[in-house]
Amino acid sequence: MLSFKFKRKDRSIQHAVRRIAREQIDKAIETAEDKSIDSEERIHAVRKRCKKMRGLVRVVRPEFDGYEKANATLRDAARRLAVSRDATVQIETLDDLKAEGDTGEAHEVSEAAYRSKRLELEARKSEAEAGSDPEQLLSEFVSEMKRLRRAVKRWRIDEDGFAAIEGGLTKTYRRMRSAMHEARENPSTETMHEWRKRAKYHWYHVSLLRDAAPAMLKARASALKDLGDLLGDHHDIAIFRSMLDTEDEQDALLERTAKERQSQLEATAFELGQQLAIESPSTLRKRFEGFWGLMKD
């Protein structure tokens, strides 16, 4: 995230948001067009760029009339690339579970069962991708990003300074806390995934502000990334579990293995999440306003 941050030299928040958006779009286009990289890797990388840009526009959302259009453009551009990535994640999840097979229930799953399930997932991936050309999808993505880049120069942020970002920052943090509490009270694939999304947006916002107080905010950003990774793995396993046939003996063993790993991830995520959400939204807002003042002194 080297360029994904506000800088002391930025003339205004509007200038900073436009600069960061252009940089992220340019990097997304460069990656999408680099055929020396496997198409699946490019798709994964540019989808992450879209998520970061959605985090960027979200931090100024209350002061940015163009938010809805920009967010929808980025959301839809990433979604159109999702088919290949989603299928790949299922295979990666199985491989991760196999790699941890020396503990818990996993050792009971035979090598043949792993191979069989992997072949099944690869077949599903091929079926999902049938009629879909990754290079064509990436080419269409590039065209969409070029249109968005032209629109960036017209983006208007109504406020400046901390006033331009405090609303988006505080609301996102509040929603992260609420999502965590909901996930604890009513744990499900949906509530845990919602918590993940809110935590990632807060991570993007802290990353944008990290130069204001590097000693404090780089550590917080790192912890938030860890939380996002934990919740991401948790979600991947949840989706993986949903496609298992628990009437099948080997699938039932895989289900227990996956559930065991998911429970471990969940416990670690809640322990970390509580530490990251200990402040009230108003207290966090005041603290970050102080950090912002340090950057602008």
Automatic annotation (TrEMBL):
PROSITE patterns: CHAD. It comes from the Bacteria. Pfam families: CHAD. Signal peptide: none annotated. Residues 10-282 form the CHAD domain. SMART domains: CHAD (SM00880). InterPro entries: CHAD_dom, CHAD_dom_sf. PANTHER family: CHAD DOMAIN-CONTAINING PROTEIN, SLR1444 PROTEIN. This is CHAD domain-containing protein. It comes from Devosia pacifica. The lineage of its organism: Bacteria, Pseudomonadati, Pseudomonadota, Alphaproteobacteria, Hyphomicrobiales.
